[in-house]
User: Which sequence fits this backbone?
């Protein structure tokens, strides 16, 4: 089973964030500056001649009247989390590569249809950016490289663009699609300039260019011994990248609005998986109870050795936060999953979190019959409250004068004898 990685790039991400904070900047030439270089430009600034990668001085010269705003990393965190959350709808393996970029591991499943990608882009645009670029390739390296090549032609029209064709490109209303097929990945990689070997440090890329190695194909054409002499332990990594190979795994994403239990289980059978689900149910239930929340959705993801991912989901009308209930529901999801290979990892996600709805229980009894047993009853209730307070979130369990008078008591004029001393 071949790997399939998607790289999602949001255009005008930083400009859209600036517009959100400063609506008065909409419609004027605007550029976001990071370390004295342009990170993003508005359409008006692009029309005036400014483009990402320019120095601040050159941008001001190219576009008179250009307004500059500083890059504010903390201001983009919520938007980056929103981008990763949208990508999580396609796969549990999502990695935020940068503020405006994300990788999605789609291995083991059919390539997403245009309708699915259009839905993803529709969630991103216009709240996070003006449009998106989605690249599909066998690995992270080539997926982002395809995006970089397309952007260098589309965004940096004034800059020299390497003559490297992306195998398939097609534009849609709110996104542009780039596809690198498995059978042509080697040819595509051999023509790439070393500048897009993005996992490497800038100093390494500069050294490669100083040695006269300008493309991936140039690197594959020299003996590996020479690379080891120049780059030491980094040589095998460079050789792999030059051939378009990147086996880096994309981790399981943990959205803040979900409770996720993830575990590795090389070669586990059904019995061992059921035991892991017990641990997952205990962790999920305790976490939910500590947060005073319940889940109305459970998603089980089973990762197989051949890169496939089996995902099953159950939804409930009432929230759940008990260990037994979560365990049996997750076990049912496991039985529904089609597992016909070696299992390497398992993940249980509790979503659609809602606050727990607790009910108040009041005891009514004739005070005359409690004279001799009131102390025993009060001690038992106090012990029960102490036990429950350990299990539930702080402030959920209360007794005595801390309890409000219920409407039933008000209507029937009952009084809980243990509420008052």
Assistant:
């Amino acid at each position: 089973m071949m790997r399939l990685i998607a790289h999602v790039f949001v255009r005008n991400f930083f400009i859209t964030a600036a517009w959100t904070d400063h609506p008065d900047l909409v419609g004027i030439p605007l550029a976001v500056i990071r370390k004295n270089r342009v990170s993003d430009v508005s359409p008006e600034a692009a029309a005036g001649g400014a483009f990402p990668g320019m120095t601040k001085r050159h941008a001001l010269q190219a576009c008179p009247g250009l307004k500059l705003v500083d890059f504010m990393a903390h201001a983009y965190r919520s938007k980056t989390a929103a981008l990763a959350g949208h990508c999580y709808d396609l796969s549990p393996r999502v990695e935020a590569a940068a503020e405006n970029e994300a990788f999605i591991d789609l291995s083991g499943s059919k390539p997403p249809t245009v309708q699915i990608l259009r839905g993803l882009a529709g969630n991103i645009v216009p709240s996070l950016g003006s449009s998106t670029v989605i690249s599909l390739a066998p690995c992270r390296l080539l997926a982002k490289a395809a995006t970089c090549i397309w952007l260098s032609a589309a965004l940096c029209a004034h800059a020299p663009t390497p003559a490297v064709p992306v195998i398939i490109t097609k534009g849609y209303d709110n996104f542009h699609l780039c596809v690198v097929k498995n059978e042509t990945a080697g040819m595509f990689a051999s023509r790439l300039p070393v500048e897009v070997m993005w996992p490497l440090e800038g100093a390494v890329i500069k050294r490669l260019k100083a040695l006269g190695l300008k493309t991936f194909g140039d690197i594959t054409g020299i003996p590996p011994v020479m690379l080891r002499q120049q780059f030491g332990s980094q040589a095998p990594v460079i050789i792999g990248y030059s051939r378009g190979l990147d086996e880096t795994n994309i981790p399981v994403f943990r959205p803040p609005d979900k409770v996720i239990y993830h575990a590795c289980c090389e070669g586990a059978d059904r019995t061992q998986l059921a035991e892991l689900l017990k641990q997952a149910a205990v962790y999920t239930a305790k976490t939910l109870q500590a947060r005073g929340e319940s889940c109305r959705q459970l998603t089980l993801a089973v990762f197989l050795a051949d890169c496939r991912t089996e995902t099953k989901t159950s939804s409930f009308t009432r929230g759940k936060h008990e260990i037994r209930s979560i365990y049996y529901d997750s076990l049912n999801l496991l039985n529904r999953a089609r597992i016909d290979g070696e299992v390497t990892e398992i993940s249980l996600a509790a979503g659609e979190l809602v606050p727990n709805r607790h009910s108040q229980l009041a005891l009514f009894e004739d005070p005359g019959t409690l004279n001799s047993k009131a102390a025993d009853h009060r001690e038992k209730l106090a012990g029960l409250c102490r036990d429950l307070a350990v299990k539930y979130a702080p402030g959920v369990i209360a007794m005595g004068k801390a309890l409000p008078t219920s409407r039933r008591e008000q209507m029937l004029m009952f009084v809980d004898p243990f509420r008052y001393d």
